[in-house]
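User: Teach me something about this protein's shape.
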Amino acid sequence: MLHRIGLLLVLLSCACVLPSSAQTFVTTIPVSGQPNGISVNPTTNRIYVTLGTAVDVIDGSTNTVVDTVQTPQGASFIAANIVTGRVYTAGCSSTGTCGVTVIDGATNAVVATIPLIVRSGIVVQGITVNPVTNRVYVADDFVYRIADIDGNTNTVLTYIKTGNSEALGLAVDFSTGQILAVPSGGALLVINGSNNAVSRVKVGFLNWDVAANSFTNRAYVTNNGGTTLGVVDLVSLKQIANVTIGSVPLGVCVDYLSNKIFVTVMGGDGRVAEVDGTTNAVTGTLTLNSDYIDVNPVTRLVYATDTNGSSVNVISE
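Assistant: First, the predicted structure itself:
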């Protein structure tokens, strides 16, 4: 585990010397379908976008789609392991079977499929990867549990029960091993990665997504039923701030090197808001119709899916 942590820090350390700049729109990247989930691997500068039945692979240096990977289990949400290069997308097929498709980030080949025991309904709503432990977590909204998958063997180790709380967005604080899940109510679920014990932190009202800064041990929760971004201290397990973002915030991501948080806001014309993680203040907004979002801390470029079209918006910090 220490080797993985050291490698993770080395892979990201080069970004510390990059200068800060104002948030600006860069370009729009056409993709080959209606996008939903998005994940960035900063070590390879690849961006992965789910399209329902496939994944588009974007080269971050050219802002072009370089491959489309068909996914037998569907593709709704996606996460990349920045240490191993593996990419994991969760979804359900047209026949109703659900699971995780494992993609080799070097070859873009499907190397495994992992079936999930789910029930019909909302089903898969989130996925995240702990690059330190090589564990993958998938939220099954309908049956109130999270699949815990071993990335070495591509098998489900256990299902973590979340009580009466349906898990939507997922994230990991890889410095503590905590798994973070947001139910559709006013809480953040913090799961101990060693014993799967679940703690609840009161935050928000009708939450949707969560992101974590593992260098500051902060979690950021979008209150989709309101106008705020909740900030949670993952050491004390308390909400420490509530940032007014705008009507119907949805997706959220964190640049853990610049300590900036980016939030998609669905209300009005649609916006992407930038929040300073030191002051918990909004420092900029762009009018962009975007849903899910991720960031490359090395290049300091932000990528947000536009599900009203067939494109990905690119933003410079």
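Now, about its shape. Helices lie at 2-13. Confidence is low (pLDDT under 50) at residues 1-5, 13-20. If you'd like, I can walk through any region in more detail.
User: That's plenty for now, thanks!
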